[in-house]
Amino acid sequence: MLNIINKIKIPVLISLLVIGFMLNSCDKDDDNTPSIQLLSFGPSPVLRGGDLRFIGTGLDKVTSIVLANNVEVNTFKTKTSELIVITVPEATVDGKVTLKTPQGNIETKTVLRISEPITITSISPARVRPGGILTISGTYLNLVKEVVFSAKKSVKAFQSQSQTKLEVKVPDDAQTGKIVLSNGEADPILVESETDVEVILPAASQISPNPVKAGSNLTIEGTDLDLVKTLVFGGGSRVTSFVSVESGKLVAIAPADARDGALTMIVASLVEVQTAQEVTMAVPSIANVSPNPAKNGKDITITGTDLDLVTTVVFGGNKQGAILSKSLSEMTVKVPVDATEGAVTFNTAANKSVATVSILSLVKPVIANIAPMETQANKEITISGTDLDLVAKVVFGGNKEVVVNNSNETELVVTVPPGTLSGAVILVAKNGDMITSASSLTILASNVPLITSIPPMIRPGEMITIQGEKLDLFVDVIFPDNIRATMFGIKTATMLQVLVPSNVRRGFGKIKFITNENETTESPEVNFQGVDPVSDRSLVFFDFDNLNRWWGDTGANENDPTYTLDGTNYFRVNGSLNGWTGFFWRNGKNEFPADAIGTNVSSYVLKFDVNVLDPITGGELAWRLKGSSGDFWYYWKPWEATGSYETNGWITVTIPLTEFKSGGDSISDLSTINEDFGVAFNNGASMVNACFDNVRFELK
Asked: Is the pTM above the cut of 0.90?
């Protein structure tokens, strides 16, 4: 639309102003006559017979509109105060427009231009290939500046152009649909074809070979196949580079991960054409598996065809074997130690599989002899036979189990556990197979005590109570690393109290007990820790189970049985650190038990459990309690004096709350800590491999 302004002759304008002043002087209430203004009109150019719009104010007062060539229009399609719409008469030519009104004539400053009528009389061919020439016949085609194909694909450079004919090259990415001619003006005249122009798409008539092997050539025959830019196989594998491309034939390599299904041909316009014929991916053929029976942990050889397609081999028990080598006709695979008997399945990248017809049998351990057949608890027996290296554990009478870690193919030696009853011996293989001895093992009476109860977690320096039978026969109690107990409490047949040496090695271990007849037994594995028990769970504010961090730069929650204190989560950092590195943080008093302590700061300490796994050699752990009363810090660095620090197990670190400083000031009211709280590494560099748990406040 073109913007114009009112054009009123100066004498008329002065007269109107004088009259307006006089009327205003005589009658102040009669000054509401609206002015007539023309703000814009268009389109320009406009077609004869087309709509011409005028926008302004007070336009309902317009009596007629005079176009160039003195063509006057007084019949309106629309006439309101803001809008007039008229039909442009056939006699109209280029020129200015005049609106006649009671307040005087309004003449446009710009010329209304008349466009000759662009028309389409025919389009040929009606079906055209991308890149082909489309001929458009009609009138005033010399005025066309742009041809727009479906999906707004524009062409502005033409092959030829005259008043009656326009030749345009069809874009490679054009789509089927109507075309639109534009005169290219800011407010353009658009002429749309009545019928669609069909843009030819590729068509497939034959696909071979089918089935096709992944990695081999697939040939598609049909028409206009040179238009294909992307070929999509079943499963979504895409091919954009082809072996050869012709209009009637397309050759592509089938991808390794292609799957069964129809092919999708995608052209430059991104239109997709799906083949009617589906492609089937070839699968390997299995001829033989040897040896059969096979042995867990050993290799088998498979022969057949197309074995190079195999990506995984799955044995009984859904256990995947390691492919050691493969070719078209032969492959070698290691049988998993925990595989069970069953068919073997061979999978391909095409998500297809083939299984052996026959079941793969597996070698089982064989018991030839047990010596001696009469023995006592805590005595060794020797089991001889074949394939005993497959045995994972031995089960004795009374359901007492012993894990095997010293067997070979022909012999294994195990110690009869306390509490064993007479009965058959059962070998349990690594894949779960069970082999029962033909003869029973006789357990003779002995004076070996039996432990029925022992604390699972033991703190060095504490007195523990052990319960069982014949405990009064013990004369020596030996802790890990051959550390003997020297102090005892109550000692009866059913209860033994012993003081755990303070220098016992932290971590998991067993206690060895020796009787007065030099017979020995061992406790179950226990966890030796140097931590204080949590006295008040409500004062814990990081436990990494429910009380987690909001942010931090390194570390994560873990629950490794090797390191966990009590079977719950802990927080672990494991990396080379340099400078400020946050571990675990929260803020805003979230789950922070400050109000329970308040001003009673001097009666409380901060405690945390820590297990430093590798020596820390530099930097410091900066503990922070920040609030409205100050930013309080405590720097924990026990390695500062010795050059390195390692705890060799969990310990509890205790920090008096009065040791937290903001400048030189201590915390006086814990309830003012309402911002950041947590810990970070800072001021140095070191490898830090450490676990943290149970960050809490406690009474001294």
From this structure: no
